[in-house]
Amino acid sequence: MSNGIEFRNVTKRYGTDPSAPLAVKGISFEVPVGTLTTILGPSGCGKTTTLRMIAGLESPTSGAILMGGRDVTTLGPAERNVSMMFQSYALFPHMNVIENVGYGLKMSGVKKDEIARRARETLASVGLVDFDERLPSELSGGQQQRVALARALVLEPAVLLFDEPLSNLDARLRREMREEIRGLQQRLGLTVAYVTHDQSEALAVSDQIIVMDHGVIAQTGTPEQLYSRPESEFVAGFMGEASVFPATAQADGRVVLGPLLLAPRHSATPGPVKVAVRPEAWVIGEPAGLPATLRKAAYLGGYYEYGFDTALGPVFVVSTDLARKFGVGAETTLTLGTHGVSVVPVGG
Ligand code: ATP
């Protein structure tokens, strides 16, 4: 598949002081055409800087950026055929919907009739008809979001960029809009780079996720790969819940975790390791397990959440076995299968 976006060993330092730290420290990745890649990470990890370098709003200190195989490293935003949607969607408050959507086309000298036609078509593609004359203040948050999306799409960009597009919305609308963005991206085959700090949003919308930490890429993969096979404690903890314990990998590939002998699906170098366990990976009440005392329990509709005390430390467990409820103080055992258990390096 040809490349939509390619970063080759890109660094970014703000300002002119060569002793200032790098905001982005030599990252390489590809966003294939027609796919959605999320750049995910905690505040200050370099997500926005990376997105702005794709847009041409910041230039790299070193390295190369390619789009469609063409080196665009030194090109400005206007020469890149990229549209960006920001946190605040910044619609022009005094312009109605159709004028907002048509604005970019007007600026590029497209004829009036064609502007109206293309703006209407694009509004229809985001499910917004009969709102042409409304001002942004007369629209709901979700409708404003769609206008902003239409305004970006009408320019038919090769690449569409989103910077935390849903952070202004309430939880329900956020869920709706992320499904819409994903649906639209898939229907129209758009190439999208999407920045968020919200891991559940990243899991829900992405073909590929790039997890960043302190200016470097911690791991790249599909949502399933990052959740089920994190390669570091950081990624395990960032991509959902995980209990992390020190353990020992043996030469035979098995891993000793307290009284448990694990047979992980992926081997580790013998010696000290860490084991990251998803809350749904634990099996309660099997023989020869880790002794555990229930400290707290919560019923959450489709499942229970349990907090156990064990010799390894506190353990967080999610159980969908609704027929069996444990009371606080109950003594039981915990064992592990192979799913939801990852062996990661110490200090990773
Ligand atoms: P957030 O989620 O908080 O927006 P982020 O992951 O998008 O964070 P960036 O905005 O890319 O992070 O910032 C990365 C680093 O670069 C941070 O240390 C930040 O302080 C620094 N930085 C960002 N913009 C500038 C700037 N214009 N001048 C100097 N330093 C900057």
Question: Quick summary of this structure?
Answer:
GO terms for molecular function: ATP binding. With 348 residues, the protein is α+β, with helices and mostly antiparallel strands. The protein contains eight helices and 20 strands.
The Cα radius of gyration reads 24 Å
List bound small molecules.
adenosine-5'-triphosphate
What is the ordering of alpha helices and beta strands? EEEHEEEHHHEHEHEEHHEEEEEEEEEE
CATH class of the largest domain: Alpha Beta
Beta-strand content? 25-35%
Summarize the biggest pleated sheet. Answer: 6 strands, mixed
The percent of residues in helical segments reads 10-25%
Structural class: alpha+beta
How many helices? Answer: 8
Poorly predicted parts: none
The CATH homologous superfamily of the largest domain corresponds to: P-loop containing nucleotide triphosphate hydrolases
CATH topology of the largest domain: Rossmann fold
The figure for the number of domains is: 2
- The termini sit apart by 32 Å
Order of strands, main sheet, comes to 6-7-8-3-9-10
Total number of beta strands: 20
